[in-house]
Amino acid sequence: MKLQRKNGLRATALGALAISGALVLTACGSDNNTGADTSGEKTSAASNIKCDEAKGQILAAGSSAQKNAVDVWVNAFQAACSGVEVNYQAIGSGGGITKFNQGQVAFAGSDSALKPEEVEESKKICKGGQGINLPMVGGPVAIGYNLEGVDNLVLDATTIAKIFDSKITKWNDPAIAKLNPDAKLPDSSIQAFHRSDESGTTQNLHKYLSEAAPADWKHDPKSKSWLAPGGQAANGSSGVASQVKQTQGSIGYFELSYATSQSISTVKLDTGAAAPVEATTENASKAIAAAKIKGTGKDLALSLDYKTKAEGAYPIILVTYEIACDKGNKAETLPTLKAFLNYTASEEGQKVLSDAGYAPLPAEIATKVREIVPTLS
Q1: pLDDT tens-digit series, residues 40-76
Q2: In this structure, which CATH number among 3.40.190.10, 3.40.50.720, 1.10.150.130, 3.40.190.120 belongs to the domain 13-139+320-375?
Q3: How many CB atoms lie within 10 A of CB 274?
Q4: Which pTM value belongs to this model?
Q5: Cβ partners under 8 Å of residue 115, min gap 6
Q6: Element (H, E) at 345
Q7: Which residues contact 27 (CB under 8 A, 6 or more apart)?
C-alpha cells in the first residue's frame, strides 16, 4: 500500500478529537463511553482503541519532534481508557534515552535509533532483554524562515549547509540570489537558530547535510548535539520555532507541525528534481517509503535515503522510534505500555498523523510494528 494522506478523517469522535487536540495535551481524562466486549477487553464506544488491562500512569520522555503526535494519541487513549494516564515529557531524544536506560520511563521517544553502546547499556534495565527501536512517527524536518517580502524561498543542500555553518551570512548572498532570481532579497544578516539540547532532529539534519552536501558539511552526522559554529541556540523544536517566528531575518529547523501551528514559512528544496520540493507530509512520505529495515530480530531501526532526487520526494526527513524493552519491562507498567503502543501503531492511530503534520508509517513497516508490540514482556 502506498503512503498517501487519506482524503479527510472519517467522521468519528476520534477524528474530531485528533483535529482539536493536535497541539494541546489535556489532562488525564475519563468518560462514560467505555464498556466491555464479549472477550472482556475494555474498548471505547467512540473508537476501536483496546485498553486491555491498562491501568494507572506510565511515564515516557524524549523526542520533541513527535510531541504534537503524542498529544493527539494521549488525548484519544485517555478518553477511551478510564483512569489511565500517559505522561510524556518532550525533553529531546538524548534525554529520553538517558531516562530509559536509567529505568525512569516505560518508553523513550528518539528520532534516531539506539547506538550499539546504548543497546548494551539498556540490558541492565531490560532484564533478560534489551531496548529495541519501534518506528512510530514519520515526517519532514522543515527549514522555517522569517523574511519580510519573501514568501517563496528556495534553497539547496549546499546553501543550507553554508548558512548553518556561518559561511553564508547575508540574505542577498549570490548563492541564495541564484536560486531565487525573482525574490527581493534584503541586504541584511541571517539569524540562524539551532537546538541547544541533544536532539534527533539535529542528528537527522546533520545526516542530510553530510550526505547531500558532503563538501560543505564536515560535522559528525551521528551527533545529536549542534556542532557548527555561530548561530543562536534555543531549547526544543518549540523553542527554535518560537525564535524564528519572532525574529525578522531568521532561519531554523523543526518539524512541520511547528511551522504549521505558528504559520511559519518553510523553504522549498532544490534536490535536483524537475521542481523544488515543498515540506509536506505527502512529500516526506515519498522519501520515507524508500526506507529499509536495518535492525535485526525485533529491532526495526531504519535506513533512510537523504540523497533522493525522486520527483516530489522531500529528503530532510526523520522517523521517531518508541524505544522499549523487548523483555524485562516492569510488570506494573507493561499492560499500559502495550495497550498504548498497540493503539499508536494501529491503522486508526496512524490515520490521525497527517492532520497533525506527520507522515504515517509505510504499510510494510507498520505491519511489523503491530506484530512486535504484543510480544513485549
Answers
A1: 344 443 468 999 999 999 999 999 889 989 999 999 9
A2: 3.40.190.10
A3: 9
A4: 0.75
A5: 222
A6: helix 334-345
A7: none
